Every structure is written in C-alpha cells, then in structure tokens.
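Pinned message: reference record for Polyphosphate kinase
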Amino acid sequence: MKLTTPALLDRDLSILSFNARVLSLAQREDYPLLERLRFLCIVSNNLDEFFEVRMPLQMEAYQQGVTSGPVTATTFERVAEMAQALVAQQYQLFNDALMPALAKERVHLVSGNVRTAEQTTWVANYFKREVLPFLMPVSLDPSHPFPQVANKSLNFIVRIAVGGEEKIAIVRAPRVVPRLVQLPPSISKGEQCFVSLTSVIRANLEVLFQGATILHFSQFRVTRNSDLEVDEDDVINLRTALREELAHRQYGEAVRLEVTQECDDRLAEFLLKQFNLPPLALYRVNGPVNLGRLIQLPDMAKGDHLKFVPFQPHWPQHIKRNTALLAQMREKDLLIHQPYESFEVVIQLLEEAVKDEQVLAIRMTIYRTGADPRMLRLLQEAVRRGKEVLVVVELKARFDEEANINWAEALESVGAQVVYGVVGLKTHAKMLLIMRREGKVIHRYGHLSTGNYNPKTTRLYTDWSMLTADAHLTREMETVFRHLTSELPIPALKHLLVAPFTLQHSMIKQLEKAQRLAKQGKPARVIAKMNALTDVPLVTALMKAASAGVEIDLIVRGACILPVDLPALKGRIRVRSIVGRLLEHSRVFYFELDGQVSMWLSSADWMSRNMMRRVELAWPIKQPAMQSRIYQESLQLYLQDNTDAWQLAENGQYVPVAQQVSDAAPVACQSLLLQQYHSM
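Predicted structure (tokens):
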C-alpha cells in the first residue's frame, strides 16, 4: 500500500467534533439535569481554549489569504462554520431543553422580564450596593478612546443619546463581583432562583446612564490569542520572563467576538472594526454571553436527584492501609486505577517519605497540581527535615503558568532545588522518585503515572498510577531526572521510553514489527488508548500496519486525524471515542504479536508535540496479572462499550455505537467500573 500523502482528517475539525460529543452528554435524558448543564458549560470552556490556542493560526491564514498547506483561508471558513453550528446547538439546548426542564424542578435563572416586583426591587438594590460602585462607563470620543478589553471579559456596548447627540459607551463588568447570585428564599416562593451579573447590569443600565437615553445595547466578549511566547534562549530566568509575559496574555490578538443575538448591525460592525476581525469571527448568541460562567449553578443549586450520585474513590483493596507503602513496594509493584481507586495512596507515599528518617532525597515533576496545597507543604516539610528535594516544575503548562510559578517560588523559599526542565521542551512526564538508605545501600522507590499530581482531577479523570521499587525502572528514572537538571544527553535506556528521544521511534518499530509478522501470515494485534492521535509518522505507521493485515483498535478520546475509509485498510483500523461522566485520560499501548504481549503505560498522547517537543515517559508493564487487569479495565471493556462509545465512520463523522446496536444489552465501561469498585 502506498501511503506517501494520505488524506488525513483535519485536526481542528476533529477537536470540534469531540466537543460535539461532549455536548451530546447535555442531551442525555438518562443524566441528571444539573449534570447536563455542567457538560453544556464544559463545552463553552473547551471552546474558549480552542479559540485561544488553535484559532489564531487559522485566523492568520484567513487574513493573509493562504491557499496551500494544512491551514488555509478555506480551512478557517470550515472551522468557523462548524464552530458557529456548535454554538447555535448549545444555545438551542440551553433555551429549549435545559432551562425549561430545570424550571419544572423549581430551579430558575430569572431574567428581568419574569421577575416579580419583590425580585426586581431586590436586584435593583443589589445593583446599587454591590455592582454600581465598580462600574465606570467610558463614552467614546477623542479624549476617551476605545478601552483595552481583556481576554474573555464581560462587557456592554451601549448606544446612547445625550442632548440630541448619539454616543457609544463601553461598560466593563467587574471581575470582583460574583457572576451568579441566588435570590433570598423570602422572595423565591419556595423555589431556587438565581440571577446572573449580566442580567443585573442589563436591568439597571438606566441608573448608570442617568441623563441619557439608551438607544441600544448588547453584551460582548472578545477571545484573544493566549499562547505565551518566550524565547528561552534569550532569557536569563525563565520564571521571571514568564511572569512578565503573563501580564500581556490578556491582550493578545483577537480571534472571536461574541455578542447577543439582538445586537444591531451598527454596533457589531463597530466592534469587529475595533478588534480587527472579519465577519466570520462574529458569534451572535441567543442567551447569556459565556455559558461557561453558569458552571457554578450545578454546585450552588440543591437537589440530589439533579446530580450524579457522589462517588468516593476507594483505597485499593490490594494495598494494606496500615502497612508502610515503601515496605509493600519492596514486595511487589502496586497499581492504582484512578478515580475508581484513591489518589490518596500517592499523597500518603509522599508523606511517608517525608517522615522517614532514612529517606535522603525526593525528586518530583510538576505539570498541573490544582489548588490542593498538601503536596507542596509535604515537599517544603521534606526540605525542613534536611532531605534533598529536587522539583522539576514545568512553568509553561498552558493556563497553569501562574500557579506553577507560585509553586516554584514557594519551594525555592525554603531551599528546595527547583529547575524548569530542558530548554525548548515541556516536561510532561509524571514521576516521583524516593531515595532511601537501607543499611549500606541506597534503594530507590518510584511513582509513575499517566495523569497529573492534581488531587482534584484525580477524582474526575481516568488514569493509571504505578508504585514500584523495581531497580531497573527507578535507576532509569534517576537518569531522566539527571537529564532534566543537567540537559546532558540521555544514555540508551533498556526499559523506559523517553520522548523526544526514543518513544516515537519505539512505537513505530513495534508497528513495523507487527506489519512484518502480518505479511508472514502470523497474528498481529494492536490496541492503543490515548487522548489524541495527530502525529503523522505514527498515523502513517498505523495505516501501513493495517494494510499489511494487522488488526488495530484505537480508543481516542479527542482529536484524531487518521482516516478509516482508505480501501487498502480493509476495515482493519477501528477508531472509537469514549465520552461519559469521567474524562478519559489514561494512555495504554498494547501489542500482541505472534502470541507475545507487550504493554506500556504513558504520559504521552500520539501527538507531534508529545513525541518531539515534550519530555514524556512510557514504562513497560511486564507482570501478567497487571497486564490482564489493565487490558480488561482499559481496553477490553472499552471496546465492548455500546453506551458512551462513538465510532469513527468512513465519512469522517462520529456515530454513536448505541445507534448501531440498539437491540444489544447496554454496556457502559465507566458505569460498570464505578459499580465494580463501589461494591468492593
């Protein structure tokens, strides 16, 4: 099969397709109402990031009239068209399904035209007391130019008449005021009533513009390019340079303008001109600008039947709770399947290492940590107890830069050694290494994970963690840490696969081996689970293997550029996406070649950035019992799913598997695992 220039699927359209699958969760009538609203809001937040990160390149191609290459003026038009359709679907679902259904459950987002007299009075008083002091309208004229508008901030544009003269004014909504407020029970008639800040301001604009006539107004919101650009070769201190650059992120090039559906054309055109945007970048919405802000509502509203039954991650059955973890790790490797099993094991491991007088050193990578301070405090305590603490903090973790800078400064303040990884690469590998003196020997204990050291997301994301005292793995982990601090070349490793050095090459070699065996008529099977598949060399290797007879199943949550419609593939590559209550995040690579099984867990997706521009790890799972467990829980069950699964069709669209097997007994992998672990 000749695959020199395969017609790959468009990455950005595939990302939007994933968000359409997430939006489908908001349509599922078997999901609780507030959870459906939550998924609707998640899509809004996902789209924000899409526009901040992916759309700038598309916009540049459109404005420059680019006609060739993977990103052109035409691809911008296609992406914009799909994004517009997705946003329209969001608001239709919000207005026609979710809000009416919540109203039947006595949960209301009360707009001005349906408030009672008492509610109107309360909102007016709230406005004067809590909002008005922070509002400073700017009437545009030569001495009051169009103000700087921060990324994703909420604003109003108002056309007013003063003494027969028309003017345009801009009002910034204050960020210090809550975006959602619950009305007191005394004026809610036994119901749960909420008002948005947008609605509060809109209902009281006359108070703000006393002496003027309001002719027209609209909310508006601009989304900007949020990629940080720091030339690491030209800076002395990356942390200082990034902190300075963060201040400019709020005012990057505009890529999207959102206004209300009723916004008149004159005001919309005026705003497009101010932000140097084409008409295709204008999004008119039938409801609140920025549905993402309503993600607070599911947490604020009460009603157990409106939310998922809470799930409490369990302490793993195979790990003894009252026995030292280091001692258990000496006996065997320990595997944790999050969030079904608790991440608290990892926190306890770190706490145990901090308190153990024989532990001499702790090494750790930090990519995303969240707001939970426990791990930071434990590392600080380790320094105070005289241990050598090295932390590799990835300062360029997108949208977590400021949090990670704060971590770095807090650790340095107590004397920890903090480095920022390798110049030009992001450190995305997740590993913790503990060095302990036992007699005359230094023993190493390690933790490797497909997910972040973030206690919050470990309750929402599916990931695998492994605790190990395997001398081969832990010595190689030490080698990787040394590379991160010194930037010296990594010597050939026998067990760990490390990007950008050996991971991509090793996966391609495995696929080439499968291809050779298939050509010889020997059985060859590949199953790979990941978040995204966009690396062209790996996609090409997959297609070549399938064309030779290798059976390949890919479980790809998000973007996938691999087409399944090529005749030479003969249906041997099957791509599915699992989208459910939990966010799929684990990466599992499984090869069954002529009866021999090899399996890796990894921090890396099969994307070019992971393979070539990040420090990533994949580690082998060699124990048959562990292989069997991972295979059953992350691969086999996922391939059987006919409830949360979507299949990539030959036309490049995703089709719910449930539509194809309507008469089959339902199989929902996440629900089954939640039930399985809950019953333990």
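Pinned by admin. Summary line: Residues 32-306 form a domain with the polyphosphate kinase like fold (CATH 3.30.1840.10).
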